[in-house]
Design a protein that fits this description.
Layout lengths: L3 H13 L3 H20 L5 E5 L6 E10 L11 E3 H7 L8 E6 L6 H27 L6 E10 L2 E5 L4 E4 L15 E12 L2 E7 L3 H11 L1 H4 L3 E9 L3 E8 L6 H6 L4 H9 L4 E6 L4 H8 L5 E6 L6 E6 L4 H5 L4 H10 L2 E6 H17 L13 H9 L5 H6 L2 H5 L6 H26 L6 H16 L1 H31 L3 H6 L21 H10 L46
Parallel strand pairs: 2-3, 7-9, 11-12, 14-15
Antiparallel strand pairs: 1-2, 2-4, 5-6, 5-8, 6-7, 8-9, 10-11, 13-14
Helix pairs in contact: 1-2, 2-4, 5-8, 9-11
Length: about 575
């Protein structure tokens, strides 16, 4: 019959869910520690629990050797001769036990033994919990809400406690102590305080389990869940397909009057669920995944792995993107493809920009490259390569694919094109530099500036004389104009601004057309009448004081409006 101590150990083992032998070993280790502490001995101590009597005996163990020369540590070794004095049946290689009284152990030793027992039991319990739950990761477990610790929810899993962090909770859910909930075991962590079992209600596996529970077609594998994308507390998209052509996968998940999916929505506290039929074709699948938005067209972008471009109507753009990009984000997770959504207007503008770039791209013929041999140009033109820019964009491997062009020819083409572009860059840089003025022009400008500064005193006299001459010249001009009009304008034609001869040159006068009153009026109306009176270099002349300037206005002719602003040549 087992002793009372062993019965207590057995009950503790069942409560903690650990092996009773682990508790027995913990008690024996505790007695060893207490005995060593009491006797202050470095001997090799051991303890043994008698299951029948419940007595715990502690003893020192020494190994038996043949002679004294083989003894290295007298605390753990003993000669055969000395061992036979204690136990006549001792043999070389055996062990000799020397029992230590345990009834003399005091209160301190007993307290130390208690701590050791508790520590060993806790370690065994941790290992048991870890080994039990590490193989159940991803499983849905029925748990009871136990308490709230900060933002974490502690749940009772039966043999252990689970922790549900804030990020593993749904935004729409709140729990009261004692309430039951289905959770998914996501991971088991080894920590100093024991194994941490982390559970979640935000992972897609919970939705999959709920559909398997509510939809018989999914449970018997007639309808298969191919992909799930979820944002807990907001929206879930689930893609299903049927193995039986007579079974509608979406209708089976929705149920009659939506009873099946409504039951799942209640379990998730009102989370929205979109059920989509799965398609192998990513284009068709993308159109379904972006519902409720209506898609105009879907294009698979070339050269980019798993990248789709979706075009929608301008009015459907916000609906396709969803609140804070939620709809397109879930669709991308569901497909496993990257999705770019553009409106019709954005796509049209993009195409126009590309066309403008193509149309404005410079096209330089190959003949513009001086170092390129005519034979090479003929081969390139025969292959459809007619511009220098096209050659520059090609790789050496692409050039070698042109008939008649080998590696050496490719090298010649590369050198010639590089030299051509280098010469263009050099010419552009040279054009940007400032061109220095010749020394004679610089000196002339400097002298002109000096003379202009010193000519201020002479200006007054010169302008006064010019004013006097201008007053006397008014009547002469009028007479001259009358004579010119009466004589047919021959003099004006000979010396006018359009004439190729000089003053006094009468060559070709007989071939010039005669100016009549109508032609003179036309010249006056178009302003050409005063062009001959503009003084050359008047822009370079220094400004005169207002007091020294005399202005003479020409009397307006018939049918002639004189503008308010002065015409060139009126100021003399």
């Amino acid at each position: 019959m087992a002793s009372e101590l062993y019965n207590v150990i057995d009950a503790l083992s069942r409560e903690k869910g650990i092996d009773p032998q682990i508790v027995v070993n913990a008690v024996e280790d505790a007695i060893v520690v207490a005995t060593r502490k009491y006797y202050k001995s470095q001997e090799n101590l051991r303890a043994e629990l008698d299951k029948e009597s419940g007595q715990i005996r502690a003893f020192a163990v020494r190994t038996i050797v043949d002679g004294p020369e083989q003894i290295e540590d007298p605390l753990v070794q003993i000669t055969l001769e000395d061992a036979k004095r204690i136990d006549p049946a001792a043999e070389v290689g055996g062990e000799l036990r020397t029992y230590k009284p345990t009834d003399v152990l005091g209160r301190i030793a007993a307290q130390l033994a208690k701590q050791v027992i508790f520590q060993k039991v806790r370690e065994a319990e941790r290992d048991t919990i870890y080994n039990e739950y590490i193989g159940r990761v991803g499983e849905v477990i029925n748990a009871t809400i136990k308490r709230q610790e900060g933002q974490d929810v502690i749940v009772d899993l039966g043999k252990a406690e689970g922790r549900m962090p804030r990020k593993e909770q749904s935004r729409l859910e709140s729990f009261a102590p004692g309430e039951r909930a289905r959770v998914v075991l996501v991971r088991v962590e080894k920590a100093s305080k024991g194994p941490q079992v982390v559970v979640s209600r935000a992972v897609p596996e919970l939705v999959s389990h709920l559909f398997q529970t509510e939809v018989p077609e999914i449970y018997d594998n007639t309808v298969v869940i191919r992909a799930i994308a979820r944002e807990a507390g907001e929206r879930t998209k689930i893609a299903v397909m049927s193995k039986d052509k007579d079974v509608d996968p979406v209708g089976a998940c929705v149920g009659m009057k939506g009873m099946r999916v409504q039951s799942i929505i209640r379990e998730l506290r009102g989370e929205k669920i979109d059920i989509i039929e799965y398609h192998e074709d990513p284009v068709t699948f993308a159109e379904k995944a972006l519902q409720p938005a209506k898609v105009s067209r879907v294009t698979v972008l070339e050269g980019q792995e798993k990248h789709l471009e979706v075009i929608v109507d301008d009015s459907q753009l916000s609906l396709a993107i969803g609140k804070k990009g939620q709809n397109v984000r879930l669709a991308a997770k569901l497909l496993g493809w990257k999705i770019d959504i553009k409106s019709e207007e954005e796509k049209r503008q993009e195409v126009e920009d590309r066309m403008n770039v193509v149309l404005n791209q410079p096209a330089t013929p190959l003949e513009s490259v001086p170092d390129l041999e005519p034979g090479i140009i003929e081969k390139l033109v025969a292959a459809g390569i007619t511009t220098v820019e096209s050659v520059a964009d090609m790789t050496p491997e692409q050039l070698e694919e042109v008939p008649g062009i080998g590696p050496k020819t490719v090298e010649k083409i590369s050198i010639a094109v590089n030299n051509y572009f280098s010469s263009l860059d050099a010419a552009a840089n040279a054009g940007n530099e400032e061109v220095p003025l010749p020394e004679d022009e610089v000196s002339t400008e400097a002298e002109g500036a000096t003379e202009g500064e010193g000519a201020t005193e002479a200006e007054a006299a010169t302008e006064a004389e010019a004013a006097t001459e201008a007053e006397g010249a008014t009547e002469a001009e009028a007479a001259t104009e009358d004579e010119a009009s009466m004589e047919g304008g021959a003099a004006e034609s000979a010396t006018g601004p359009d004439s190729g001869g000089q003053s006094g040159d009468v060559t070709g006068l007989d071939q010039e057309p005669e100016a009549g009153p109508d032609s003179v009026e036309d010249l006056v109306e178009t302003g050409q009448y005063y062009e001959a009176e503009v003084i050359e270099g008047i822009e370079d002349a220094p400004p005169a004081d207002e007091a020294e300037v005399t202005t003479h206005e020409r009397p307006a002719g018939e049918n002639e409006n004189v503008p308010d602003e002065e015409k060139p040549g009126e100021q003399r």
